[in-house]
Amino acid sequence: MTTEIKVPQLPESVSDATLVAWHKQPGEAVRRDENLADLETDKVMLEVPAPTNGVLRELKVASGTVVRSGQLLAVIDEGAQVAAAAAPKAAPAAAGVKSEGKADGDAARDKLSPSVRRLVEENRLDASAIPASGRDGRLTKSDVVEFLDRPPAAAGAQTAPSAAPAQPAPAARAVRPAGARAEHRVSMTRLRQRIAQRMVEAQSTQALLTSFNEIDLAAVNELRGRYKDRFEKAHGVKLGLMSFFVKACIEALKRFPVVNAAVDGNDIVYHEFYDIGVAVSTERGLVVPIVRDADVKGFAAIEKEIAEYAQKARAGSLAIEDLTGGTFTITNGGVFGSLMSTPIVNAPQSAILGMHKIQERPMVVSGQIAVRPMMYVAITYDHRIIDGREAVQFLVTVKECLEDPGRMLLGI
Q1: What's the topology of domain 91-156?
Q2: 324 φ, ψ to 5°?
């Protein structure tokens, strides 16, 4: 009995997807719910699970093909078994030698994100031979690019126990002549294309302007230091900075509702709810999951939700619903060392707050010079509906809330 594998129903706002990579080839056994392929939309990655156990008989669509909902992707022979000849017995391992090379290689491959896997496969590389710098030993795109740029001798060199069998060297690469300059071309991911499109649209359709201020985070740091252990023990999540900024922004949005509004034709739509987007950087690009109704959530709930979104974003498992909507966005370039920047509004929103690196600087406090943990903050806003006075006062309100965090708790 055969079973057809089709493109899952795509979300309403997504018309098509690109089949990035197959995880199984014809003749290989598949298990029910095992991921067979990765589909990339302009917002999220989707998996194509196997509906039943069996053997993959045929692939109907090649990697890189644009597909639509319901399109036939592959056929499975339900309940079939892989031919015994296709799985030769492994030679007995020598005493003390671990004979798990294939398993280790498969495990390394399974950890790859779709974009990294595609780069590895296009260049016929052994993923387990490339030094990984990502979290939990994951291989990043920069790891692969750096590996490709090495001289052939260095790229092929491996460090392994002397008793272990030699691994085949990666595909041969031409020796680069002295003084020559190399380049390689890769296709933009769907997400990167979408980011590029939205950034250009925001710049061309909105009248963007940026204002700056600086915040003394001594009070927030003191509060976090005093309660961080009890907070984590009570709620199971660390007390980070982002929840303070989310709460401070909500206080400012309540005072200046136009910053939480959006332009729709000749109308201004004032949102009476606070769905705050928190930008998260991933290997595929920047995504902005939404903390919905953040005004009615406590610090712990906000921290948990942000942590869960970050984990899902880096695993490529965010859903369309996680990214849809939002009335205001916060982005933190400080985690990468940025001291100051002008963030671009996440249209159709009308404003975005940019956080930056915390840096100790000498400041005059009560007539005395003191070293304080300072952060530059920026608000980029659509000047069509938000005046400079409102943008500046919004930023001042955020500053006041964070420099005296008790104000947020007391609602003053």
Answers
A1: Dihydrolipoamide Transferase (4.10.320)
A2: -90, 135
